[in-house]
Amino acid sequence: MSSRLRRLGISIWQARYIYLLLIPGIVYFAVFHYAPMSGLVLAFKKYNAKLGIWGSQWVDMANFQRIFTTPAAVTAIRNTLEINFSRLLFQFPVPILLALLINEMRGTKLKRVYQTVYTFPHFLSWVVVSAIISNFFANNGMINTIIASTGGDRISFLSNAALFRPLLYFTHNLKEMGWSSIIYIAAITAVDPTLYEAATMDGAGRLQQVWHVTLPCIRTTIITLFILQVGRVMNSGFEQIFYMQNASVKGVSEILDTYIYSITFNAVPSYGFSTAVGMFKSVINLVMLVSANYIIKLLGGNGLLG
Amino acid sequence: MTAGVLKPSNRIRVSTSRKVFLVINTVLLLLLCAAMLYPVIFVTAASFSEETAILKGEVTIFPVRAHIKAYEKVFHYPLLWRSYGNTLLYTGLGTLINLVLTVCGAWALSQKKMVGRRILTLLCTFTMFFNGGMIPTFLVIKELKLLNTIWAILLPGAVSTYNMILMRTFFLAIPQSLVEAAELDGCNDFGVLFRIVLPLSLASLMTIGMFYAVAHWNSYFSAVLYLSKPELYPLQIILRQVVLMNEIVENASSTENVMAEGIKYATIVVAMLPMLCVYPFVQRYFVKGVMIGSVKE
Question: What is the pLDDT of residues A113-132, one digit of tens each?
Fold first, then answer.
């Protein structure tokens, strides 16, 4: 026993500089990630600034019960889920499709140009992009000027509850599709070319090659990103919605993140309740991530961690 | 190719439909390029155009009755310059802190001789999927007396777990024989990191540094949460004020009100400019980062 401890001591001493390098990182994660996690006890308390987090009174599950008895919170949960499933439907496949289309252009110089242009909007902040969007889709904006000049009626895209969500998906796709497609392009590039040759020998057309060779080969990448997406089921793109939201579309656009923000900053803040809503969100995300990972492993796929 | 030789008749038919497809595909992809580039072109053109032309929708690609009055207005708005300076400082200093911490952590986690490497990596990864949330984090920062200081912006995001794991993947790809050779020559672990590993990883450092720098440049919420002094505000906050709340216009006299649209566009251009200038040259680093990230373990 003591000799094992001694050996452990020696191996630690030999790697002492490495542990030294590790210290700043450990301090960082302890202070800015794990300390706030311990602050989650607030979700079970009624926060009192004078008493602090630890001194405040316990209220058991009252804050969580309040989530389900507050209509605004329930609406936020419903909106979050609806927007997220729509994003899975209307946004998740788009980069895959784009990667397939770009891949068909391989060998041409344009491929580089496409990649540069398509990935560029990802690096603009949502503040900038939402500003451009609101100018383009405003009542006197570019889009409506075109509609009016062709004899149509002006449409108030930004304050129309029925159009707001499609606008979210459309603009999100324009901003992010190029960046998200890179990972798929990388995966497609790694496909063994002899597979295509074999498929051609068997008489497969281009479309069949995509279906029977390319897609199965990049399946792991698609599944990995799908699991990660499912793990974000309770986040539905906070920044985009926060900047594009306005009073007339609040009913269809208020998600949990914007709800947490508004109850924390706009009304009389209830730290305990806000924390409870946040924790509810994080826990569901984590549960969904782990379950998606588990189910995919059951189905014979590779999970997140290989 | 082989198929073409085997079935010559088939080859011509396929290549015709292939040609049609390629043409349609090219048109589609070019349209998409246009859809992404046009807003930037329009905003730039509008920022140089006369107000009435913008409002009437006369601006399409080129400025109409070009002038630079909107920019003069923007440049005379003191908070904008202040925030520009702040953002440059946050981006520069922040990225430096990010890189130092990320490199140290990633290098340590990539060392097989370190005991507890797996559990530490797991604990770091866990923070990507679960966190304390807005209020507990805020309270920690308040307890540390960081509110309304530059450190509230720089420290809470000092390490991005994703980037650290990316860096670790880079480091794991460095041949172990190089490290061993250096150790035989009497290098300690510091020496190995600074003399051997870092010079070999300049491209990866660029990549990760770029990711961090962009995040700092675009950062908005940490300032909303942790700063209440306008003189500390970063660019994005001022930008949002100008664009949505007509901050400059409200402070201006009625004659200047005529400039509202032009000023918005000019501010957007000023905020986008560094990205527009740098992006085409550093784009390959970003792409490389994603590619490495897609190769797991």
Answer: 888 889 889 989 999 999 88
Closest residue in chain A to residue B129, using alpha carbons only: A286
Q: How confident is the model over A82-91, as a mean pLDDT? A: 93
Cβ contact (<8 Å) for B133 and A120?
A: no
What are the residue boundaries of the structural domains of chain B, listed by start? 12-67, 77-294
Contact between residue A157 and residue A147 where contact means Cβ atoms under 8 Å apart: no
Q: Which residue, among B56, B35, B63, B82, has the nearest Cα to B265 in the 3D structure?
A: B63
For chain A, the structural domain boundaries read 2-55, 63-298
Taking the model in full, what pTM does it have? 0.86
Polymer length of chain A? 306
Dihedral of alpha carbons B228, B233, B234, B235, sign: positive
Contact assessment for residue B74 and residue B263, using Cβ atoms and an 8 Å cutoff: yes
**Band (A32; pLDDT cuts 50, 70, 90):** very high
Per-residue model confidence (pLDDT) at position A144: 86
Cβ B294–A187 below 8 Å, yes or no? yes
Mean pLDDT of A91-120: 86
How distant is the Cα of A296 from the closest Cα of chain B, in angstroms?
17
Comparing A215-219, A257-261, B261-265, which segment has the lowest mean pLDDT? B261-265
Interface mutation target, options B135, B210, B219, B222, chain A, most CBs of A under 10 Å = B135
Question: How near does any CA of chain B get to the CA of A303, in Å?
Answer: 12
Chain length of chain B:
297
What pLDDT is stored for residue B245 in this prediction?
61
Contact A127 B240 (CB under 8 A): yes
- CA–CA distance, B20 with B16 (Å, rounded to integer): 6
Lookup: tokens for A138:
């405003």
Whether the per-residue pLDDT at B237 is higher than 60: the answer is: yes
Q: Where is pLDDT greater, at A43 or B1?
A: A43
Domain A63-298 carries which CATH code? 1.10.3720.10
Please report the ipTM that was assigned to this predicted complex.
0.84
The two three-digit tokens of residue B28, written as one number: 């589609």
Q: Does domain B77-294 have CATH number 3.40.50.200?
A: no
Give contacts of B140 with chain A, Cβ < 8 Å: 31-32, 35-36, 39
Nearest by CB to residue A8, choosing from B39, B115, B268, is B115
C-alpha A151, offset from chain centre: 39
Contacts of A306 in chain B (CB under 8 A): 296-297
